[in-house]
């Protein structure tokens, strides 16, 4: 695997910084050295020092403390958070969440470029990180592929407001930095949020084409001059990505979109489509294979940390979140979801073909009936042409038509039987069982979800209304226009849910929500498992907050204008249980959105553990050994999860 090795600690390296035992050296940078550290509870962190050697001035300490305090205000799924720091220590340091994931730079270098859809997905996650930073008044100033990690859960922006808290004058003049710098930064002018947007555009271009958006000749000073002038070379940029990337690379800052605009563009492109936030849906296999290898490496460090040497695994000198004692990400069912979507597409195509065939047979039956009626009403040899059926808005009552002659070969009973048969078949096609054997109700379609990639609950379909026609002595047909579309019961159930309501819906452990129709319950009741943080019309769940214990439900509607999206947050209570997969002391998969009987003797395939919530507390900056223990003599093993956007923490143990 490509990447820098974890080097053994040298004679001038400390063995501990604060509460963190240092396992090895990840690398060195402009601000000092970066170490791989571990807490007493087993959590991995990246510990950065202000300077590796020499005397730290009071000015540097104050700047360091100010930058750490600023970074600690940021709490986003798409950034790496500062967990702890000590600016007053002899060697000032900060501990940052650790993510075992490759950078975009390594992925492009070793595995090639991304398709347009995956570039948009990376753009959305990075833009969301910038939205969070800019809201806190932080300008990153060094957005580039090396500073964006990519676990399957989504991109993570690192090194904001710390090692590059000043302009380019404090960064190294390298091709890797200059090529993603905005023109105003290259000219030594003040950096703004628009500067980060320019760097984002250059990074996305690199993902799609494999190089920065400038001519390549290896000359650093010439490249700097080109960046200052905004002299771009966009050869090779896919046309479908031009509307996303080209505006970000505008020479003047006021001509660039905001990160929120980039995020909205991605969300709009997903309107009406199932969305999975996880990379398994968007990234090519060669990328996910490398990302998976890094995750395996992280688990190795977690369970059996070493100090480098010949057996040390490679990392990418980057930081991010790995919840102790192992990754506690939601269980994903990308393959099952893909198979289900394929079956649904095939079923829809089959229904459309059947409907077209039945419509053609119905037309033939009507024409044959007309010919039979014409023969019955005329003497041999007259050859009266059949009437073309058409709507008669207000037909005058007339006596029943003369029955056709038996010699015609088609009777009124035959025609009626054909039409009734067509109606029955159409009803079965539109109201029968789905391909997986689950019976649909009314206009509801399939319902299901994916988890680390994102829960998705959809119910939808279409209604059709037929027309009844009857004959008259004049040969006309009665036409009944279809009624105006009205919401069905599922549409109304979703429309009746408001922000702040609580629902009794939960993950049933088998890839589905417990109910396809939301039922509002009192938020104080024991079965209030979800709280709605935002209810809105339309398919716009892409902007719902994400993270452990947060997701969304959406209903595509029996008609497009009946669609509804619900952002939801899990309501945790002490004593509740959920299923997980455990390997020794490491939990590898957890379904925190689920509810499972604490007394159950069986769990779904792929899981082997039932975890029970023993405590629900306010989150802390760090968690000491025994944080979840209920007494000094408690020998149970506990796993904890930060939830509610990092505001609270769950303590759990096996039943």
From TrEMBL:
Signal peptide: none annotated. One of its GO terms (molecular function) is protein serine/threonine kinase activity. Residues 431-467 have a biased composition (Low complexity). Keywords: ATP-binding, Kinase, Nucleotide-binding, Transferase. Residues 299-349, 361-410, 431-493 are annotated as: Disordered. Residues 332-349, 361-373 have a biased composition (Basic and acidic residues). This is non-specific serine/threonine protein kinase. It comes from Streptomyces purpureus.
């Amino acid at each position: 695997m490509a990447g820098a090795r974890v080097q053994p600690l040298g004679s001038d390296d400390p063995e501990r910084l604060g509460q963190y035992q240092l396992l090895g050296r990840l690398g060195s940078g402009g601000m000092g050295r970066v170490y791989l550290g571990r807490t007493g509870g087993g959590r991995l962190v990246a510990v950065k020092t202000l300077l590796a050697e020499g005397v730290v001035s009071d000015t540097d300490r104050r700047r360091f403390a100010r930058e750490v305090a600023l970074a600690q205000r940021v709490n986003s799924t798409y950034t790496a958070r500062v967990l702890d720091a000590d600016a007053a220590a002899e060697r000032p340091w900060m501990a940052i969440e650790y993510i075992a994931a490759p950078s975009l730079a390594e992925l492009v270098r070793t595995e090639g470029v991304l398709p347009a859809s995956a570039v948009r997905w990376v753009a959305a996650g990075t833009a969301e990180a910038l939205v969070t930073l800019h809201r806190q008044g932080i300008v990153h100033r060094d957005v580039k592929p090396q500073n964006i990690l990519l676990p399957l859960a989504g991109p993570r922006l690192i090194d904001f407001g710390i090692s590059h808290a000043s302009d380019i004058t404090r960064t190294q003049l390298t091709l890797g930095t200059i090529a993603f710098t905005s023109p105003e930064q290259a000219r030594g002018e003040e950096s703004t949020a628009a500067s980060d947007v320019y760097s984002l555009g250059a990074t996305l271009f690199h993902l799609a084409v494999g190089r920065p958006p400038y001519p390549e000749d290896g000359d650093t000073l010439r490249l700097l001059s080109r960046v200052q002038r905004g002299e771009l070379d966009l050869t090779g940029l896919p046309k479908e990505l031009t509307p996303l990337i080209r505006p970000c690379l505008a020479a003047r800052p006021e001509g660039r979109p905001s990160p929120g605009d980039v995020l909205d563009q991605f969300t709009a492109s997903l309107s009406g489509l199932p969305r999975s936030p996880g990379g398994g849906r968007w990234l090519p296999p060669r990328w996910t294979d490398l990302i998976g290898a890094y995750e395996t490496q992280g688990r190795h460090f977690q369970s059996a940390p070493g100090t480098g040497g010949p057996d040390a695994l490679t990392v990418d000198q980057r930081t991010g979140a790995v919840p102790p004692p192992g990754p506690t990400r939601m269980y994903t069912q990308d393959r099952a979801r893909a198979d289900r979507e394929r079956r649904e597409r095939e079923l829809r195509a089959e229904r459309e073909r059947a409907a077209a065939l039945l419509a053609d047979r119905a037309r033939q039956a009507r024409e044959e009936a007309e010919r039979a009626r014409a023969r019955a009403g005329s003497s041999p040899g007259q050859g009266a042409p059949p009437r073309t059926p058409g709507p008669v808005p207000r037909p005058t009552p007339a006596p029943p038509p003369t029955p056709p002659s038996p010699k015609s070969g088609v009777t009124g009973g035959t025609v009626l039987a054909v039409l009734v048969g067509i109606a029955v078949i159409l009803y079965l096609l539109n109201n029968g069982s789905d391909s997986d054997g689950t019976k649909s109700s009314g206009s509801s379609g399939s319902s299901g979800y994916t988890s680390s990639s994102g829960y998705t609950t959809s119910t939808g379909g279409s209604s059709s209304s037929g027309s009844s026609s009857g004959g008259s002595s004049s040969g006309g047909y009665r036409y009944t226009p279809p009624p105006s579309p009205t919401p069905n019961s599922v549409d109304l159930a979703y429309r009746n849910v408001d922000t702040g309501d609580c629902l009794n819906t939960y993950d049933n452990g088998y890839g589905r929500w417990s109910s396809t129709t939301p039922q509002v319950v009192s938020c104080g009741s024991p079965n209030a498992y979800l709280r709605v943080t935002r209810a809105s019309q339309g398919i716009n769940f892409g902007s719902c907050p994400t993270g452990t214990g947060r997701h969304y439900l959406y209903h595509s509607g029996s008609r497009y204008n009946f669609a509804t999206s619900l952002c939801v947050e899990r309501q945790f209570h002490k004593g509740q249980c959920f299923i997980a997969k455990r390997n020794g002391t490491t939990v590898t998969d957890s379904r925190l959105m689920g509810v499972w009987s604490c007394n159950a003797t069986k769990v779904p395939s792929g899981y082997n553990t039932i975890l029970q919530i023993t405590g629900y507390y306010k989150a802390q900056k760090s968690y000491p050994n025994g944080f979840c223990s209920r007494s000094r003599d408690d020998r149970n093993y506990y796993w904890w999860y930060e939830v509610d956007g990092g505001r609270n923490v769950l303590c759990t143990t096996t039943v």
